[in-house]
Amino acid sequence: MSKFVMIIFGASGDLTKRKLMPALYSLYKDNRLPEGFAILGIGRTEYADETYRDYILNELEHFVTPAEVGMKEFCTHLHYLSLDPAKEEGYAMLDQHLQEITGEKEPDNLLFYLATPPSLYGVIPLHLKTAGLNREHTRIIVEKPFGYNLKSAQELNKIYASVFEEHQIYRIDHFLGKETAQNILAFRFANGIFEPLWNRNYIDYVEVTAVENLGIEQRGGFYDGTGALRDMVQNHLIQLVALTAMEPPAVFTADNFRNEVVKVYDSLKPLTEEDLNEHIVRGQYTASGSKKGYREEKNVPADSRTETYIAMKIGIDNWRWSGVPFYIRTGKQMPTKVTEIVVHFRETPHQMFHCHGGHCPRANKLILRLQPNEGIVLKFGMKVPGPGFDVKQVMMDFSYDQLGGQATGDAYARLIEDCIQGDPTLFTRSDAVEASWRFFDPVLRYWSEYPDAPLYGYPVGTWGPLESEAMMHEHGADWTNPCKNLTNTDQYCEL
Ligand code: BG6
Predict the structure, then answer these.
(1) Is pLDDT of 157 > 60?
(2) What is the DSSP letter of 214?
(3) 11 carries a ligand binding annotation
(4) DSSP-assigned letter for residue 353
(5) Domain extents for the chain?
(6) Which is the catalytic residue, given 77, 79, 127, 236?
(7) Pairing of strands 375-383, 390-399
């Protein structure tokens, strides 16, 4: 086998320093990178190998805490080539460079990682092909969003299919690399007690939340042309819906698993005019106290109508889920960072006990918390000790910390390692990416046809526009909002 080289396009960018290098370093320190590996960074910024190593070492010291040994040695595996990935002429130089690094005439154990702005996703593979770098054992990882809408995703898929075989293409969605996302499958399919209840007969509705307490940071240029729907919903959130809603694959293989994901996407109930008007709430954060509003952020136009928050009610039209609404939401600058799925079971048919403190909990809730404080909480009613028959909700909770070991791991490390080993299970297949866009495309079209469609402001640090509460009230419910400073799984404000 030829020497393994990972080539990162966008090597001087944010993703590389925050996520990719720390992930590669963690694989390195656990001896999980191929023997004699090399990493070649590509970007327009000028660096010599040595200055690039210094730059990454510095960033690693910043992003890997507490600092660990071996970072300097890790950096000796780094190389850098300055070129403009949009221009074809640089690729012969890239080939030349790869030959020098590997000492081989035609190195083919190559992994290209596209951590660039999405506008380059279509250009780079074509240039790789022209330079003859799409060799047999080569793989390519492409960041999300894969496409800007259905049409552009289809076009991208065509380009990739003309350069690589599908098994060489790894569309990454780092949520699937999260230990706790994978655990949804284990929770559902390695236990007998929940699955019989996991359907329309026992589940009333489901919430999927992935919110953050940060703004767009330095990413105004990217974010303003993207928005929350493309950045979070079309990929991360809908993946979580798929994990929650999918059927168990008979055998757990990449294809079987990915077939089930596509089946969920294909079953998403097409959005009607009414849904577009009433079951989608988009918002944008506004200034509060010393915190800037979205329109004051760097590289964001003062009249931007890009959404930084979106809440939607969606349905899945199949035997298991017909009639069960899935409420999904994501937002920047919310009170806290949390990703979780809340499954609300149906109420008991009859209330025969007194309610503790006037609050009558009749429905069980199961919370699958992906981050932070990864864990699972089941809520159920218990008699309050003492005279009478007052019932109160209590919680049974499991925290991943209890499992010991590397409880949460790193999503990027897991996915990069899977790709190196040729396992595509946790990556998005071409048909899945298109099926997802097919569902969300009408929303994007609606917003572009009706630019004045409501975009609600919400002050930084709040739970989003009030209109999204109203959407939930239609179902006689409220969003499950965890408390502001989550320190353990049992902090739920509405208790
Ligand atoms: C990225 C989005 O894919 O996911 C970001 O582009 C977002 O906007 C991030 O902040 C959230 O990921 P995580 O793992 O921090 O929840």
Answers:
(1) yes
(2) S
(3) yes
(4) S
(5) 5-143, 176-405+430-491
(6) 236
(7) antiparallel
